[in-house]
Amino acid sequence: MRISTFFYTIKQGIVNIWKNKLFSLASIATMTACIFLFGLFYMIVVNFQSMVKDAESGVAVTVLFDEGISDQRIEEIGELISERPEVSHYDFISADEAWESFKEVYFEGNEAAAASFAGDNPLANSASYAIYMNDISMQDSLVTYLKSVDGVREVKQSQQVANTLTDFNSLIGYISAGVILILLGVAVFLISNTITVGISVRKEEIAIMKLIGATDYFVRAPFVVEGIVIGLIGAAIPLGILYALYGKIVMYISDKFSFISNMMKFLSVNEIFHNLIPVALILGVGIGFIGSRITIRKHLRV
């Protein structure tokens, strides 16, 4: 495509927006509202996912060893565990460490009872590995494998906690998909209406262009540009608003609803917008492009 044609296409797309100011503003406003709601929902979902991830990181699978197992075999089991894709990291807890931890919990305030076990560790065979996972939903496959490892006496897992966290993650995913689809449908519909008006206004001009040999691409391109520009503007505005509001929203929630801030740690504005900015811009441009393409194909016989 020649440079002159490229700039003509850009110019005509912007001129179309200006000619249909009322409908263009309506489309931009709707796109802004849709992307704003998407961004707001995205921030909520990402923070909840972070909370779930933090909760998952504290759920461990405990591996207990056969009585009389050698230190070398324990190290070999550790190496086997480290090679598993489900495993994030693991910690070795010796029998003495297990006993010290037990005393702190069950003999708090009754040190005399704990002292009666001096020199005698009731948990002498309780050395273990505490294994933490990348994804809690992979717990069952890891437990099945660990039970088959020679030298492993018992594997303890938090099945109910794992199921709850996995179900919660799935619920967030389904709700997110539903909301995004609704917002996409509304935005595409409105941009489609704006492009339709632009086509109606320029019907005679388009017919003349076709008569003098204008290509299909030459006729379609300005309307595609129009949709993309509307989508881009409609995405940029809510991003700016959300960027300015996010810190204030987090501060307000922390002040007014302290129990929420105690339950979860909010992500920083940079962590949120690192992904939100490209996603929202691509979403806006994509909606504009798809909306304009669908409308052009439907209304133009070119």
Automatic annotation (TrEMBL):
<dbReference type="GO" id="GO:0051301">
    <property type="term" value="P:cell division"/>
</dbReference>
<keyword id="KW-0812">Transmembrane</keyword>
<dbReference type="Pfam" id="PF18075">
    <property type="entry name" value="FtsX_ECD"/>
</dbReference>
<comment type="similarity">
    <text>Belongs to the ABC-4 integral membrane protein family. FtsX subfamily.</text>
</comment>
<dbReference type="InterPro" id="IPR004513">
    <property type="entry name" value="FtsX"/>
</dbReference>
<dbReference type="InterPro" id="IPR003838">
    <property type="entry name" value="ABC3_permease_C"/>
</dbReference>
<feature type="domain" description="FtsX extracellular">
    <location>
        <begin position="59"/>
        <end position="155"/>
    </location>
</feature>
<dbReference type="Pfam" id="PF02687">
    <property type="entry name" value="FtsX"/>
</dbReference>
<keyword id="KW-1133">Transmembrane helix</keyword>
<comment type="function">
    <text>Part of the ABC transporter FtsEX involved in asymmetric cellular division facilitating the initiation of sporulation.</text>
</comment>
<feature type="transmembrane region" description="Helical">
    <location>
        <begin position="21"/>
        <end position="45"/>
    </location>
</feature>
<protein>
    <recommendedName>
        <fullName>Cell division protein FtsX</fullName>
    </recommendedName>
</protein>
<keyword id="KW-0132">Cell division</keyword>
<feature type="transmembrane region" description="Helical">
    <location>
        <begin position="171"/>
        <end position="196"/>
    </location>
</feature>
<feature type="transmembrane region" description="Helical">
    <location>
        <begin position="272"/>
        <end position="291"/>
    </location>
</feature>
<keyword id="KW-0472">Membrane</keyword>
<keyword id="KW-0131">Cell cycle</keyword>
<dbReference type="GO" id="GO:0005886">
    <property type="term" value="C:plasma membrane"/>
</dbReference>
<feature type="domain" description="ABC3 transporter permease C-terminal">
    <location>
        <begin position="179"/>
        <end position="290"/>
    </location>
</feature>
<feature type="transmembrane region" description="Helical">
    <location>
        <begin position="217"/>
        <end position="246"/>
    </location>
</feature>
<dbReference type="InterPro" id="IPR058204">
    <property type="entry name" value="FtsX_firmicutes-type"/>
</dbReference>
<dbReference type="InterPro" id="IPR040690">
    <property type="entry name" value="FtsX_ECD"/>
</dbReference>
<keyword id="KW-1003">Cell membrane</keyword>
